Amino acid sequence: MPESSRPSQEANGPLPVRCTTSRPRADVCVAQLAGELDIATVPVVVEHLRRETATPPAELLLDLSGVTHLAAAGLALIVAAMNNDRDIHGRLHLVGVSGNRPVERALQITGLLPVVDVHDDVQALLDALH
Question: How far apart are the C-alpha atoms of 79 and 85, rounded to whole Å?
């Protein structure tokens, strides 16, 4: 499965976020996010997701299990991906929410948790998408 990863840089050094993508199938893009999703890091992640979904997949899986901080900009990214905005394509599914307090709490207190498609396991979700 081909993977794409790009280190996130800014003028003062590396940003505290990492985004790695893979295409386990032509119609599925899996993006593993780790670190902080905030106003400084989200533009880098958006650009990465734009590039990786330029050939639109049917499904976009965001694995948030490595996310340690989810700020308003990160929540806006999730909403944009849900709506196929910002040139991010694919029906959105989230993994790594349950048990990840910073992510689960942010989604819960903003009212997004009941409207996003949340799954416990990437492989189980991939199997269900067949």
Answer: 8
E strands present in 71-104: 91-95
Beta-sheet pairing, 9-10 with 28-37: unpaired
Q: Is residue 31 a contact partner of residue 19, using CB atoms and an 8 Å limit?
A: yes
DSSP 57: -
Residue with tokens 């890091």: 41
- Quote the CA–CA distance of 52 and 44 in Å, as a whole number: 12
* Domain parsing of the chain, residue ranges: 3-123
CA distance 99 to 104: 7
* Topology annotation, domain 3-123: Transcription Regulator spoIIAA (3.30.750)
Q: Give me the percent of the chain exceeding a pLDDT of 90.
A: 87
Calculate ∠ Cα 75-78-81, nearest 5°: 150
Q: What are phi and psi of 97, to 5 degrees?
A: -95, -55
DSSP state of 113: T
Summarised one tens digit per residue, pLDDT across range 74-96 is 999 999 999 999 999 999 999 99
